[in-house]
Amino acid sequence: MTVADEGPLGVDDLVDGQLPMNARQEHFSLAFTRMIAYTAGCSIKTHETDYDGVDITLVSSAEYHRYYGPQFELQLKCTTQHRYLNDDHMAWPMKAKPFHKLTRGKRYIPAYLGVLLVPREPEPWLSVDEEGLVTRSRMYWQSADALATSEEIGGTRTVHLPRSQLFTPARLMGIMKDIGEQEGGF
To answer: Is the pTM of this model over 0.70?
Structure first.
């Protein structure tokens, strides 16, 4: 494997001789999302690529007034950059191309963005003891429709994910209910 225009991946690119930090963050955000989804009783469909601007599809098996088995697509991001966190929102910079893919108005399945904020060092990302598993990470989310109103500056859009929108099992169930009842879930 090579890094674009930088030659082969070297030992210096690895954290403590293991996976590079960006790979750890990618896998940790998927694992975090899986724990939330499975706790909420939902399942996940994976995508071979994120060419269409999404990483996974979350699916409910519940029957609602309008739909059975509502689902939505989710683009995941992970960062250690706490500087993006403001008093009432996370200000996340998105490049124009992935932004446009995520916010296409003609999506058949609603899409969301989730940004996982993890501590700067990987060791405190989670701890496990006799009491259980604890993580100091949290994910903020926003529907792609709501993101579409952000302003583009120099090929980048800064999207706002409200701090009140933590990705939790209860909130995931609420999103599914909104989509299933067609009450503005997207």
So the answer is: yes
SS3 of the chain: the string is CEECCCEECCHHHCCCCCCCHHHHHHHHHHHHHHHHHHHCCCEEEECCCCCCCCCEEEECCCECCCCECCEEEEEEEEECCHHHECCCEEEEEEEHHHHHHHCCCCCCCCEEEEEEECCCCCHHHEEEECCEEEECCEEEEEEHHHHCCCCEECCEEEEEEECCCECCHHHHHHHHHHHHHCCCCC
Residue 175 CB neighbours (<10 A):
24
Assigned CATH for 9-181: 3.40.1350.10
Sequence spans of domains, the chain: 9-181
Q: Identify which of 30, 75, 77, 39 has the alpha carbon closest to the alpha carbon of residue 60.
A: 39
Give me the count of residues in the chain.
186
For the chain, 186 residues long, give each residue's pLDDT as a single digit of tens. 222 334 444 444 555 668 888 999 999 999 999 999 999 999 999 998 877 889 999 999 999 989 999 999 999 999 999 999 999 999 999 998 889 889 887 788 999 999 999 998 877 899 999 999 999 999 999 999 999 777 777 788 899 999 999 999 999 999 999 999 986 544
